Amino acid sequence: MTLPDDYLKYPKRQHGMDHDLYPWSNLFDRKPVSWPEGAGVALWITISGEFFPLTPNTGPLRAPGHMATPYPDFRTFTTRDYGNRVGMYRIMKVLDSLGLSASVNMSSDLTTRAPMLVEEFKSRNWEIIAHARNMNDVVHGETPEDTEQDIIDRTLDDLSNNAGIIPKGWMSPARSESYATPSLLAQSGLEYVCDWGNDDMPYLMTTEGGPIHAMPYTHELEDRHVLQNLGQREEVYIEQIIAAFDRLSAEAKDHGGRVLHLALTPYIIGQPFRIWALKEVLNRILEKGAVWNATGEEILSAWQNAQTPETA
């Protein structure tokens, strides 16, 4: 028995997406972007400033790195605390020695639990990306909107009232969203979100709450993913980043600026036997030249300027 001809015909098939958040777009057909300093690649470094409560959240999902054994899981809790007490400072030393800046996706609980650490970020003019109150604030498709809005409001209040920080960016714990997340973030005044990993460049989202941008978060090069989840050696981690940089640099010559995003986790890359790999890969990138180190808000601003008709 053969299928009738109309079986494979779908009347709604068209060139586009099945939602209204953003249109379909081929990266290589877009208007070229020029970064400052004539750079082909913008180097965006993000560092996780996370607080994991000893009592984890209930529900269908826990953030990666959360408690793993029955309460009280001091083994995991103190390992995560190592990142903020030790690993973070090793990363600071590396970036300071190379004159590089970063964006910190930070739990707002750190403004009261580790205010000295927040002052270190601010003294370096690093950007703070709102990262909920702590790693228990995971939302998903069944999270009520008022609950999610309360998380956003209390996070922004903590950052503003305790540390004078007005963030432009947001990263959800576990990068997990509800259907309402982009809209709630936009109507709360956030300008970009780091939860989506479907591009190498920023792009605009249109939501009921207003416009918001997705920044290119590169999960595949995240230290947690490469070194811990995949168990690869530091030498492989370095070569993958350099390969990405070389490819993006080559594309930039014909298609405009690109973004290389490096996501760092202090309790992973900040270990004494690994921190050398961070310095090595950053040194190799800087030696290649034509790179612009910038925070997320600086990259988004430059990208937005390139979208105006005057710069076409």
TrEMBL record:
Q: Which organism is it from?
A: Parvularcula marina
Which lineage do the record's taxonomy fields give for this organism? Bacteria, Pseudomonadati, Pseudomonadota, Alphaproteobacteria, Parvularculales
What is this protein called in UniProt? Polysaccharide deacetylase
What biological-process terms (Gene Ontology) are attached? Answer: carbohydrate metabolic process
Q: Which InterPro entries match?
A: Glyco_hydro/deAcase_b/a-brl
Q: Which residues form a coiled coil?
A: none
